[in-house]
Amino acid sequence: MADEDFELDIDDLKRRMDGAMTSLRQEFATLRTGRASATMVEPIMVEAYGTQTPINQVGTVNVPEPRMVTINIWDKSLVGKAEKAIRESGLGINPVIDGTIIRLPIPELNEERRRELTKVAAQYAEHARVAIRNVRRDGMDQLKKAKANGMPEDDHKIWSQEVQDLTDQAIANVDKALEHKQEEIMQV
């Protein structure tokens, strides 16, 4: 019995590969590049009103200059708790308090730390490539099953090439993002 109506869900494979790329971008955003970024403080949680609250929900986060993040805390009673949360966050930044504004001066990265960060970025990129290859493998497994159920050889080759093209494009996007992030990290 030939499976003439086989339809590989390319959109699903593409969505899953795009998900790996989105995850990579989020991981890259957490890497400190020596430049200020509002995303640096997103993971910080402040003890506010008896519950752990993201810092961007107790104040306004701004980046007024390339090496400075400011957080304007809305409730004056939370300034000390926000400062404590920043100090304990592991960012390696000493907050400076000015009324209800907390200033976070971003120190210059040394050469050794920059090289370490490029290695971390490369590891993140490799995890994304592995995720993309796993999606490719799932697609190829579906094609093998369809071929075993009577899919014509020509159709199998066409679908296989489409999955491979999608994989190559996704991995090229990861490589491009990695190259851009490494340039950003090494920029003095």
UniProtKB/TrEMBL annotation:
The keyword Protein biosynthesis applies. The lineage of its organism: Bacteria, Pseudomonadati, Pseudomonadota, Alphaproteobacteria, Rhodobacterales. Responsible for the release of ribosomes from messenger RNA at the termination of protein biosynthesis. May increase the efficiency of translation by recycling ribosomes from one round of translation to another. InterPro entries: Ribosome_recyc_fac (IPR002661), Ribosome_recyc_fac_dom (IPR023584), RRF_sf (IPR036191). GO terms for biological process: cytoplasmic translational termination. The keyword Protein biosynthesis applies. This is Ribosome-recycling factor. GO terms for cellular component: cytosol. It is found in: Cytoplasm. Residues 24-186 form the Ribosome recycling factor domain. Its main location: cytoplasm. It comes from the Bacteria. GO terms for molecular function: ribosomal large subunit binding. Belongs to the RRF family. Keywords: Cytoplasm, Protein biosynthesis. CDD domains: RRF.
